[in-house]
């Protein structure tokens, strides 16, 4: 048995639909600008370019249904996304074999301190201060592949206080799930417990305390998050 000089932190994990067992999270990879309309609204060319990724910390995933408005920001945006959870991994995974490594899927919000991200971009600095913070990724329960298959189409809709803010379709992703897995595996050794956030459609915008966000995409249970 290992001894530690301080108590080790709890294992980051995600709930699983219909099960008391949890999915342990190892790493969180997020792809940027993976929907053409969102690339345009952020001021970028929507043409297919090599994908790029950033990371959130595993403990930024939060399934409580509450999003505490973060400190040091006055412009926090929602970004609705499909989440991919890997059950196995490896290096140099062939695109044709990539889906065999997926354990399940779920819904997530890539919350962003847009003002801090903008300052970092302007200065040519990393984005982490805008993307990775406490409860920065509200998530719903994972659904195993055995139950939902590999969804590659379906309306992804986010409402805030009942008003539609984001609406897209999974089939609009520039880089599909197998391509993302294959690409990441050329730069990292992927492993069980790795999570990928697959990008967001257009319509990202600010939230305020008291807002209620609801993300839907069949066949997943809706993700409702209160901004507190």
From TrEMBL:
UniProt KW Transferase keyword: no
GO molecular function term, any single one: hydrolase activity
Superkingdom, taxonomy of origin: Bacteria
UniProt cross-references to Gene3D superfamilies, sorted A to Z: Fumarylacetoacetase-like, C-terminal domain
InterPro entries the UniProt entry points to: Fumarylacetoacetase-like_C, Fumarylacetoacetase_C_sf
Keywords for the protein's UniProt record, in alphabetical order: Hydrolase, Metal-binding
Domain Fumarylacetoacetase-like C-terminal positions: 28-228
Protein name in UniProt: Fumarylacetoacetate hydrolase family protein
């Amino acid at each position: 048995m290992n001894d530690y000089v301080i108590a080790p932190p709890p294992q980051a994990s995600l709930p699983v639909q219909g099960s008391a067992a949890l999915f342990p999270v190892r790493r969180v990879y997020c792809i940027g600008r993976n929907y053409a309309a969102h690339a345009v609204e952020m001021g970028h060319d929507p043409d297919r370019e090599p994908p790029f990724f950033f990371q959130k910390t595993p403990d930024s995933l939060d399934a409580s249904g509450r999003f505490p408005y973060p400190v040091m920001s006055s412009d926090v945006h929602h970004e609705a996304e499909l989440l991919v959870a890997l059950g196995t991994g490896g290096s140099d995974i062939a695109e044709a074999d990539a889906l065999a490594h997926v354990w399940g899927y779920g819904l997530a919000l890539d919350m962003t301190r847009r003002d801090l991200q903008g300052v970092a971009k302007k200065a040519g600095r990393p984005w982490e201060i805008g993307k990775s913070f406490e409860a920065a990724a509200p998530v719903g329960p994972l659904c195993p592949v055995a139950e939902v298959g590999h969804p590659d189409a379906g309306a992804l809709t986010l409402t805030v206080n009942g008003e539609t803010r984001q609406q897209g379709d999974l089939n609009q992703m520039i880089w599909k799930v197998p391509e993302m897995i294959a690409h990441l595996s050329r730069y990292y050794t992927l492993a069980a417990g790795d999570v990928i956030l697959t990008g967001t459609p257009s319509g990202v915008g600010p939230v305020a305390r008291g807002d209620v966000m609801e993300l839907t995409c069949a066949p997943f249970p809706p993700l409702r998050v209160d901004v507190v």
